[in-house]
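Recall the central idea of this unit: under ordinary conditions, the amino acid sequence of a chain determines the structure it adopts. In this exercise we apply that idea directly, starting from the sequence alone.
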Amino acid sequence: MTSQQSFDGFPEGKTRLTPLPATFFSELLPAIDHLGELKITLYAFWALARKEGRFRYLRRAEMIVDRLLMAGLATPGLTPEEALDEALERAVARGTLLKVTLPEGEAYYFLNSPKGRAAVQAMQQGRWSPSGDPQAPVELMLERPNIFTLYEQNIGPLTPMIAETLREAERTYPARWIEDAIRIAVENNVRKWRYVEAILEHWQTRGRDEREDRG
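Accordingly, the structure predicted from this sequence is:
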């Protein structure tokens, strides 16, 4: 049996608190079913609350050197970096965090809050950059979740057979099509990959009319 480290309790007197919105408990917490995602979500609230500046963000590079965070994310079969990336990927796919990658490859994470969305918009419009220079040209890419995470969070558990099917879909259809098809399946309450696949096949053979999709 693995020994469990005990907790001595919270100290007396005033302690610094980390604010959490009520929607975290009413909407987000019941939906999260992955321990790493839960830990990185709570870490983001804590870390961002301790930052200063007009826009607050986390960098992947700074999370990797946080020994306590990386130890807490330890997952059998994964390297520490892989465990971190999996947790971040799930938080981004759920919409808790917004991920932006700059041309040099540095990844920045913002809370999906009004201020976080404003920061991403300011970066896209070239009005602000993490370097602090508002005139610095920024070409960025707002990251999209991968197909495995989309499937798990919207359709069901991932099996080896389904994983191979999803890889084939990625080779056949544009990533945006797959995301939109899954969204349509969820909106129609038909959470089956075969339904998603039928939508993709229809678009491929007959062409896609986005106005009709919206309708």
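The beta strands are 58-59, 97-101, 107-111, 141-142.
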